[in-house]
Design a protein that fits this description.
202 residues; mainly alpha; two-stranded antiparallel sheet
Length: 202
């Protein structure tokens, strides 16, 4: 197993790695070293149906060189409990926002604590490490659900064979806009983009 501070230090290394192949290799190392923590972090940060209904201004919690991650293991456990309360709707509105800010505004000896940065990324479901949901699905096949909407198929009006091959189809012009899937769970509607992101302000 890994310490939480080690894990998030490795995420910083993944963010700073330009190669997608190298990023995948580093995530595989995390999975080998601590599969439970790796699955937990990526699920909370990327699971499209877990909506925390709180958005954090990420720039308020920058990743600082030399920033500490004091008490990371205990803070992560406390943060997971908060995520569960948010996910299940036990905390909403101002109470939810205040609880999130209380956990993120953590400083030690006036030195910024980098755990706040990663907590903000999880809450916003955007770790910003250059790894898409498709990569996580490939490396952790059972972690995230499939949310790929059907895409349009092109029709070549100049090609008679193409038109004939699509007999019985309905043809309409493609309009600009967002392509998404709508899901209803427990009376709550969630819109998910084709990249697996929650379109929370739809």
């Amino acid at each position: 197993t890994m310490k939480v501070s080690e894990f998030f230090t490795e995420l910083e290394s993944i963010r700073n790695t330009p190669s997608r192949t190298e990023k995948e290799s580093k995530i595989k190392v995390l999975l080998d070293r601590d599969p439970d923590l790796t699955n937990q972090v990526f699920k909370y940060a990327m699971y499209p149906f877990w909506n925390y209904r709180v958005h954090v201004v990420a720039r308020n919690y920058p990743l600082v060189n030399g920033g500490r991650m004091s008490g990371a293991d205990k803070r992560w456990s406390k943060f997971v409990a908060l995520l569960e309360d948010l996910r299940l709707g036990k905390l909403t509105g101002n109470k939810a926002r205040n609880a999130v800010v209380e956990q993120l505004d953590h400083y030690t000896d006036d030195i910024h604590d980098n755990m706040s940065h990663w907590f903000a990324g999880v809450i916003n479901q955007d770790l910003s490490i250059g790894v898409a949901a498709g990569t996580i699905k490939k490396l952790m096949p059972d972690l995230l659900p499939e949310t790929e909407p059907m895409l349009c198929d092109k029709l070549d009006l100049e090609n008679k064979a193409d038109i004939n091959s699509k007999e019985g189809w309905i043809h309409e012009p493609k309009l600009d806009g967002l392509r998404a899937l709508a899901f209803i769970q427990n009376g709550q509607v969630t819109f998910i983009s084709r990249r697996g992101k929650d379109l929370y302000n739809t």
